[in-house]
Each structure stands twice: as C-alpha cells, then as structure tokens.
Design brief:
It contains eight helices and no strands. It is mainly alpha-helical and 210 residues long. The protein folds into two domains: 52 residues, Homeodomain-like (Arc Repressor Mutant, subunit A, Orthogonal Bundle); 146 residues. Helix 3 runs antiparallel to helix 4, helix 3 runs parallel beside helix 6 and helix 7 packs antiparallel against helix 8. The longest helix has 26 residues.
Length: 210
C-alpha cells in the first residue's frame, strides 16, 4: 500500500469513527446502524466493512483510548503516597466525574453500550475488560478508605458497596451533564458536596462493620 493510500485509509477510518461517535451520542448505540454511520461518513454501506467489522468493533476503537486514559489517571491517584486513603478515594471519584463531565453526552457511549456485569471474570470485548478494571480500581480505593474493617466484609457485600458508590457517582454526573455552566465553575461549586456524600458513605460502611 502506497503512503498516499495509507493516508486516505486512515482519513476514512477517522471520519467513520467521528461520524459513529456523534451518532452514538445523539441517538444511542443500539439505535444506530452501520448504514447510517456510512452515510454520515460519506462512504458506501459496503465500503465501511472494509475498515470495521461491525458496530462493536467501531465502539471499541472509539472508547478504548479515552477509557485507558481515565484508568491511568485513576491509578496515578491511587499511587499517591502523600495522600490519605480517603483522599485517594476522593481523587479517584473526582477523575471519574471530571472525565464524564468533560465528555458531555458522549460519556454514555464510553460507559454503557454493550456493558457486561462488573463481576464477570473474563469479558470478551476489550472495552468491557477495561470498564470492569475501572470498577475494580474504584472498589480497591473504597476498600482502602474503609480501612481495616474492610477485610471482615463479605465479598458479595463489598461488591455491592462498590456498586452503590458507582450509582452515586453516576447520579452526580447525570445531574450535571449538559449544564450550561462552565465545567471549571461547576466543579468548584459542586465537588465539595460530591466529596461530602462519599465521606458519609464511607463512614456509614465503617459504622456498619464495627
């Protein structure tokens, strides 16, 4: 393949990914067809399959890079030796909130389409492997913040604690997705409340296992 042809191929793939991301964010992953994506990208319905096998393949190529970036940011926060355990948890939760709010409605494309249960051991799709790792990091940060008593919590209950915290985080994000307030100002105003809710949640777990 010539250099020019490779360039055109990469440009077409980028155009298809961009069109798919916009359609997924606007209509939802399930409602969009490959034919619609091809039309929006300016290629034929048959040609799109030269670049992507199916919608799931497209989703993976769109979602995996930003999800890996969020994972790296979370792990960086968790490895901060200067922060307390509760502060590391707050920082991990902040990374999730900032990531989602800066992505706008596209956040739903990254987090939910084709998702599997978070306790599934070996998801087939790499995007779901990353999503489940992200939840695992959150659960680890929560367990560390709860402290020594976390070891006495039944594993199934500990998993549910993580789910509850994730529901809370999603509630915060969904409240402010699409807000006309500048993101920096929004975070400055609402993060203290967000943090207080997480602290109260952790204190509640600690109280329940004493």
């Amino acid at each position: 393949m010539t250099t020019r042809r490779k360039q055109l191929t990469e440009e077409m793939k980028a155009g298809i990914r961009s069109a798919a991301a916009a359609l997924f964010a606007d209509k939802g992953f399930a409602a969009v067809t490959m034919r619609e994506i091809a039309k929006a990208a300016g290629c034929s319905h048959t040609a799109i399959y030269l670049y992507f096998k199916n919608k799931e393949d497209l989703l993976q190529q769109i979602a995996i890079p930003p999800l890996k970036e969020m994972e790296a940011a979370m792990l960086g926060r968790m490895a901060d030796p200067s922060a307390s355990q509760i502060d590391r948890l707050l920082a991990v939760c902040r990374e999730f909130a900032v990531f989602c709010l800066t992505k706008g409605s596209f956040y739903h494309v990254l987090i939910t389409p084709g998702a599997v249960r978070i306790d599934e051991k070996e998801p087939v799709l790499e995007v779901n492997q990353i999503r489940n790792r992200l939840f695992g990091h959150l659960n680890d940060a929560l367990s560390d913040a709860v402290g020594d008593g976390a070891a006495r919590v039944d594993p199934a209950k500990a998993l549910n604690h993580g789910r509850m915290l994730f529901y809370y985080m999603q509630g915060y994000v969904n409240t402010y997705i699409g807000s006309e307030e500048p993101t920096a100002a929004l975070l400055e105003r609402t993060l203290p409340i967000y943090y207080d809710g997480i602290r109260i949640f952790v204190a509640g777990i600690q109280q329940s296992i004493r």
